[in-house]
Hints:
By secondary structure, this protein is mainly α. It is 78% helix and 0% strand. The protein is built from 16 helices and no strands. It has helices spanning 6-40, 43-50, 59-104, 108-135, 142-170, 175-178, 181-194, 210-233, 238-260, 274-303, 309-333, 339-356, 370-392, 400-442, 446-452, 465-508. The protein is globular.
Amino acid sequence: MVHPPSAVATDEPRVVTRWIGFLALCVGMFMAILDIQIVATSLPAMQAALKIQPDEMSWLQTSYLIAEVIAIPLSGLLTRAMSIRGLFLASATTFLIASIGCGLSTGFASLVVWRVVQGFAGGALIPLVFSAAFLMFPTRGQGLATTLAGMLAVLAPTVGPLIGGWITTTWGWPWLFFVNVGPGVLALAAGALCLPRATSLTQRLRWVDGFALAMLAVALATLEIGLKEAPKHGWLAPATAALMGGALCTGCVFVWLSLRSSTPVVDLRLLADRPFRLGCAMSFILGMGLYGNVYLMPVFLAYVGQLDALEIGQIMLVTGAAQLLSAPVVVALERFVSAGRLSLFGFLLFAVGLAMSGWDNPRTEGDDMFWPQIVRGVAIMFCLLPPTRVALGHLSAEHLPDGSALFNLMRNLGGAIGLALIDTVIFGRAPGYGDALGKRLLALDPAAFAWTGLPLQEADTIITTEMREMARPAVERAALTLAVNDAWIMLACITLVGAALAALFAFRTRQKPSSA
Length: 516
């Protein structure tokens, strides 16, 4: 009697179902990461519509980021207690409700409250995808799953300005939030039907140390606020010092409580594992370069190039295209080259790409940014996918949720610190550059006129007050260009530290290429 190929017949539907469930997780993560970028492009429109004070506008972003960065490390605990399916359904539902609430908001207070809820739900969705990539695909398909997750994680910030500018111009700012509803409902339905069911262990939440949880929340919140305020008021200003000191003290208390607890909120003992520790360090440095890249280009193109959000987004699509095209190449190379050596190549290439933008001038345009974006886009995938395997690929199923939470937290913290350093460079150095250029122009220095783009004056020209005021915008743009160039070079130097970490892993650790 001939038996049908039952193994194949039963396995194929399971594989398809598993992939549909994983795609639902990816949609949730993509919405959560994209949300911060598309809102950034439309803050002026929201300010005018809701009559929000200018000094309050930044809280629409800060409130989301604080809630997100608190939720990310908690996702490991919540995954163990609720399962991947349970946490996804709860978080995605909350994210959609909060999105609708944001779009219907009629004032500053209600919008900030909904942004906090939205950020917390989004923060739980982000690391869930990376742990699921290893848990749902323990053998075949793991490389493709991590590639898809990583590609969407870095693509969202790149395409965010374009999507946000187009939505605001076409439909208005509330649709920045309403646009989540359609994809979110489809993802919820797919997740409910296709994600594997697991026994709920919510009783674990009863044993959570509430004081340790509070210390974690306070530490991350004060750190985010301190990083936001430091560039404007100074790193040694009393308010900044108080925030940073509070973050340090509460963070130390949280670490002490976590290491003593048998059921910690976040399992920090994973950092004792050398590959995981190095992978998290590389994720931290990638965050600085990744978010710095997405921040510096719009700053330059908006304030120096005088472009709108839609035009900026169109220029930045080059990075996204390079990421899409290079992702399958990275996956293919992982079969033959160790993750450590691929990471080393990626960070070296990323440093080169960042440094290439450190020589821009006030007349640099989108075409001039093509090759730096190509280099950075290719490098980013080498800096994300292999380090993800370095950090998470060898962890047990029990430790993967916490590992993914810490790995993703490091990238977000790196981004927050990187942005604070960038703003410090820009706020600190642009005025000095402006004063120096002004003095050189008054001295009729031909090089200064060439750099600022102003017409060269004759040697006997008398510079009047009216001429100074007319030249001021060009001088400010030229000074900002110099400060932005310094920030690009700073990021390139920091990225070289990531290359050193990758080299440390590549040449001191025996590692075989991936077979996934």
